[in-house]
Amino acid sequence: MHQYFSIIVQPIRLDEVHWTHRAHLGSLRANTQYQYKIFSMDYEKRTWLYLKNEFFWVGDSKTETLHIGLISDNQAGVRAFMSILHSLVNLPASYPSQYLTRSSAKVFPHYLIHVGDAVQSYDSLEEWQTEFADPLSYAWSSGQGNSPPTILYAHGNHDQDINNRYIYTTGERQGKNWFSTTLGAAHFVVLDSQPLAQAETQLDWLRRETHMEAWVQASFRIAIVHIAPFIEYWDPRAWEELGEKYWGKYVRAKLVPILMDSGVDLIVSGHQHIYSRGWMSNEV
């Protein structure tokens, strides 16, 4: 067990009663169990323990089997979201034992990748709490007795926050909603399919990123982007009046060529809600 101390950066006030805080833990060791504690302090500088939890960090370890859960577009679908989370939490019970590792017993999966649109209304604190945070917390606390896995989040079309007011998934990046990380033998780039005024800035970043050693040397190169290169027609008004038929063009014409030229192995997208358009006999 390793311990890091972090100085909390300046709190950011969202509204009259809500604040966000951000802490940097520095370089984490691969294949290591970490415990973190959050303390609260009153005006008289008296402190008390607010929360204590643990997480397992696989990092760039090449020896650990990496388990990743993928989910997207759960907005306004709490029942389906809870069902999917319940299946993820309980998956180890039916998993072949040779694929379960030391860290799998502590938290499963190791990471969650969310491909955008966690809520319908991005500026609704109530939706973030009741339709995203609460289901995640309940699923893992009741199923495994711990906190949810680390989440890599890609912005969707419902996640546009032009004024950078709500920073649940962006931190202080001021609209630059893309980043990269290495997990196990895979290197991930998480991209914004609708970066608005930051479109060229993201392309410049991606060109540099795909020449970095972490990308070039990775065994697997994976891109996460909400809107797919080609999207399906589903609603006349959204398609014509809201211009959804053009939404895939930036991804298809700008992002994909860079990724393909640099040897991407997998592009993961969401947006289509295809999972909600049918019901198979095996409840999938």
UniProtKB/TrEMBL annotation:
Coiled coil: none annotated. It comes from the Eukaryota. Keywords: Signal. The keyword Signal applies. Residues 67-275 form the Calcineurin-like phosphoesterase domain. It holds the Pfam family Metallophos. The keyword Signal applies. One of its GO terms (molecular function) is acid phosphatase activity. This is Calcineurin-like phosphoesterase domain-containing protein.
